[in-house]
Each structure stands twice: as C-alpha cells, then as structure tokens.
Amino acid sequence: MNEMNTASSPACSCGPAAMYPPPPRSGGLSAREPDATYLAPKPKRPAWSDASVALFAALGRPAKLRPLAPFRREFVDRYVPNESSLLPPELAHQLHRAAAWNETLKRGAFGRAVREPFVIDLAWSSSLLEGNTFTRQDTESLFGLSPLLLQGGGAAHGEEIQMLINHKSAIEHLLNCAPNSNLCMELVFAVHDRLMDGLLDDVADQGRVRRHAIEIRGSVFEPEQDPAALNELLEQILEKGAAVRNPVEAAFFLWVSLAYLQAFADGNKRTSRLMANVPLLLHNCAPISFEGITELEYGLAMVGVYERNDLSAAIDVFAFTYRRSMQKYVAMMANRPLPDPRAMRYRAQLRRVMKAVVIERKSVAAAIVQEWMSPNEAAELAELVAERLPALQADSGPRYELDSARIDAWIAAGRPY
Q1: For residues 125 and 290, is the Cβ–Cβ distance under 8 A?
Q2: Burial bucket for residue 279 (CB in 10 Å: 0-12, 13-18, 19+)
Q3: From its phi and psi, is residue 109 left (phi > 0), alpha (psi between -120 and 50) or beta?
Q4: What's the pTM?
Q5: Which end of the chain is more exposed for a tag (fewer CB within 10 A), N or C?
Q6: Which domains does the chain have, with CATH numbers?
Q7: Per residue in 320-355, pLDDT tens?
C-alpha cells in the first residue's frame, strides 16, 4: 500500500405533498461528524418518498435499540461506473438533461459564469448545515470585506467567520483548479486543507487522511478506522467518480461515498459537498449549492447512508436541492450573452497580439502579420483586438498574461496601437 499523501496547500494538479417523518426522539438521531448533533424541527421539504418515510421510522428508534452498523467497504467496492447507479437511472438522466448547458464550451465555463453567486450560495448553505448562524446577507457582506478586516474575525463569531472564509477559499480553489485537473487525491486534499484551516485541534489533520479513530456521536455507525484502508478507499472513490459518464450520477456518488467513508478527522460532509461539484463543473452542468435543506433533513439522509446504506432520503434531498440550484443557475446562464466565438477561435492569437501591442508597442497590424493568418481571419482578429484594447485595464491583465505594471505604462503612454 502506498504511504498516505499529505498536502498543506497543494497546487492544481493531477491529472407535491407527502408524509413526513415524526420528530426524532430524545437520544435518537444525532449523526453529524464528531463535533455536534442534529437538533431541529421535523422536515417539511422535500416531498419524501415512501421508502424515505420507512427509513425515518426505522431511524426513529433510540440509538441504543438500533443494531451496530460497521462500515461496509462493499458499498464502494461493488460500485461499477456506468453499470451501477446510485440514483435511479431515469432520474439521473432527467437531471442531467435539465442541468447541462453547452458541453462544447471550455471545461468549467458554466462555473465561471455563475462564480460570484455560487461561491456565496455554497459557502453559506454548507456552513448553515454545520450549525453556522450567519445569514446569506451576512455572508455576502462578510465576503465583501478586505482580507485585513477579516483577519480580526471577532471573538463572538470567530469560528463561524473562519468557517465561511474557509469555504470561500476552498470553493474558489475548486473553480480555478477543477477544469484543469481531474478527480484526484491532490485536489480533495487541497479542498479539505482549505475548508478546515484553523478549525482542527491538530493542524496535521488538515489535507490528509486521518491516522486516528473517530466516532459519530448519537449514531450506531462505526467508521472504518484503518488509515491504509481509508487511503485506498478514497483513491477508489475518486477513480470511480472520474469514470462515471453521467456527471449528475458522479456528483451523487461522490457526495454520499465521501461522507460515508469519513476519511478525515473532521469536515467530511463539507468536503463531500464541494467535491460533488467537480464532475458538474467539468461537464458544464449547473453546480449544486445544497440550498433549501435543513440540518435535520440533511442529517436524516446521512444517517440512512451511514447506518443502513439506504439512499432513499439522500436521493430525495439531492434531487430537491439540485433542482433548486438548477432553476437559479440555468436561468442566470440563459440571461447571459453567449461567448464571443471570435475570442474562442483566436484565443492564443489574441493573447500574443495584445502582448505585442502592450509590451513591444507594435501596431495591431504589425502584430497580426506575425500570426500568418488568412485575410478574413486577420480581419476578424483585428476587429476583436480593436474592441479589447480601449477597455484594457491593469486588473484584466492575467487574461492576456500581462502584468499590471506593463499595462499601466502602456496606458500612461496614451494606449498606442
């Protein structure tokens, strides 16, 4: 077995109405990760399937009356990408058809287009599921503060602020790196490292498979405790998730499997929520923000997976919250102008010409001559460059591999081109 990887700050790499369950009895459902318990009013959403209602009845018994539920590695082992399906196949296809935008665009284009609201939505909702009391408006205001102001935090809400800021950092890393990498250990370690920065008792537990035992308070689930097995199973989950052709099925598989594995000292559910977005981002599907779900609803779904490998409630929760996400993000995309086909066609040439004009102070015509293009192509590129140069500012330099000092000097010289 390979020695377990560690990563303190890895770079991008790798390759209608329904019956509801009764309120949980005292001492019953309580299966968050080792740091807290689920205590909330009974769920009102989503519309639970009959199978979920039956699951809730079984889980409504006090923990001491439920049989112990050791981790079953066959839950992962028996899953065969594109043959097995954790979601009902028709539901997976239906959600994919509704969520997919335009897979001919560059990988990650959907995620980049809805980046700002998605970062806020997922950071807030994921933190809310961990007991964070900040509202979405609070979160948006917090993210608008400068990094220097955020460092102070505030004693009353320091941990909550840290949790939100960590989510922002991890989600932005995912958006930046996922389209240029694949599902791999480095990526999941980097996401966990950022999510749990400053929130763990032992900093050595950040971004690495745990080397010690944990327990799920209030649940009869007994997680896998062997570090070597955890490392092997984590790799297997990521490899299988990467092989699934339907990105929505892949997202669901990653979400439930990573949470079930409990590979980290803490933050497993947080990590699973973020990692579920990777196949969606890679295939230009609407991302999933997990909004509209309460702690109890989420907890019921996870306990069903942990103790009984029963996915009924997880399917109901996922379908409900993903449809909610789709309605928001697909509508946003529909209202955006389509990408300029010229910019996609001449991406490399545009970058080189912009650099030649700004750095070498060449004319647009002289710079385009060096590209050896047909007259029609040269005319299209010249038109595109003429649109971009007057709007060029220092903060847009990275798009063209130009540093801000070069752009400022060119602007000071009167924007010659």
Answers
A1: yes
A2: buried
A3: alpha
A4: 0.74
A5: N
A6: 50-334 (1.10.3290.10), 341-412 (no CATH)
A7: 999 999 999 988 887 776 667 788 889 899 999 999
